[in-house]
């Protein structure tokens, strides 16, 4: 492989936009590039040899953001012969060859189904001095068979499925990620065990619709079984998952959450709208009564559960009465947090051509009212925790003001963000360590704990963070559809595990 300078490997940088699935895909992109001999560029390096954009296509400004960033990078590339730019992810899957037409200085375009092709495409583009565009319509290899450079020493993403079988009228994801493909349970558990062996304390099970997991091998209770199986993994302290769909949410999953000690009592369950008419237009096959019924069951089984959600404001045809129904559901559900969005038209979705597209000022006014209602509720819910003891997994980058305030930050077991004072333990607490502390103040989006920590436990994840070791896991090959002790993961070879 040609190097940036004699004797030095080529450097790379990955820029990620979008959801947790994209963040995890970027970990695989990094793992692939490092397996191919690239090294990560320093953060201050403004001229890495390869820049990879891992893109999102869900929001309306995704296109403008990508092409704006590509435009800013063009003069950098002009001054840096041999520099390469690659574009992957959902927007690449959608725009395909249009990216090279609009930005001819891009070297590689690859889709959501062929992440593993990136190193070969970069080499081919450099050899041929021409852009390489490769977009597959279905998975080349399951992403989890690819090597991964993990970004966190203490928390890891684990994909249990990719793609989605739903047909929500506002969503472009199924056309870009394809139909749902499920991993085998033993395969998933092997990856979780590999992460725990590296010192990771928390895993988040990822899927476009996690609780439809098992559809491919005919077990509608597979997700609850998978949660319980994670409870048998020694050293795994926290299990989370995202995102479930209300139409597939079953009582056995609630029982598994309540009865498995390491499964966190936090649930992110998208509402989208509280109006049954709007839900019908969105093709969301549940209604507000069913949604609130699930929340009631969750809280009956886990009174301390923190429930978060997604809400879209201004969907085509939404009336004032529809919006008021959304506010009613928000008030009844008592969410601990909500991700709120103004509807944006995405070409290729049924909603983009629906009648009743709303004026921007109407959507903005409703959005501001929703934000105010959500924050009033989340603040009230957080104030209930003042004086309570919380277990905090210390994190990196969660507290933007930590340096100025002298605090550290992390997540409680229920997912709430906690900023805490290290007190006499200042300098001893590392990312990945566990702290117990008492909440002294609540805000709408976080908790503060300004007293002396009650306890501090040093962990292997903290040791790894202190040593600057990022976990690296090899690809995990597909196994049989059983839950239980998985076969030992294959030893890493010199090449890609998918080959």
Structural class: alpha/beta
Average the pLDDT over all residues and give the rounded result: 88
Major β-sheet, in short? 7 strands, mixed
Oligomeric composition of the shown chains: single chain
Number of helices: 15
Distance between the termini: 20 Å
Estimated radius of gyration: 23 Å
- Beta-strand proportion: 15-25%
Which spans of ≥5 residues are poorly predicted at pLDDT below 50?
A: 476-499
**Percent range of helical residues:** 25-40%
Looking across the biggest beta sheet, what order are the strands in?
A: 20-21-18-17-16-19-22
Overall geometric form: globular
How many strands in all?
Answer: 23
Q: Would you write up a description of this structure?
A:
The structure is a single chain. The protein has 499 residues and is α/β, with parallel strands linked by helices. It contains 15 helices and 23 strands. The strands form 6 sheets. The chain has a 7-stranded mixed sheet with strand order 20-21-18-17-16-19-22. The model is unreliable at 476-499 (pLDDT under 50).
Question: Strands, helices and their partners?
Answer:
Layout: E1 11-16, H1 20-35, E2 39-40, E3 50-55, H2 62-78, E4 84-89, H3 90-95, H4 98-102, E5 108-110, H5 118-128, E6 132-134, E7 148-149, E8 155-159, E9 161-162, H6 173-177, E10 181-182, H7 185-197, E11 202-206, H8 222-230, E12 238-242, H9 251-259, E13 266-268, H10 276-282, H11 288-301, E14 306-313, H12 320-333, E15 337-342, H13 360-383, E16 389-394, H14 402-405, E17 407-412, E18 417-421, E19 434-438, E20 441-442, E21 447-449, E22 455-457, H15 460-467, E23 472-473
Parallel strand pairs: 1-2, 1-3, 3-4, 4-5, 5-6, 8-11, 11-12, 13-14, 14-15, 18-21
Antiparallel strand pairs: 7-23, 9-10, 16-17, 16-19, 17-18, 19-22, 20-21
Helix pairs in contact: 8-9, 12-13
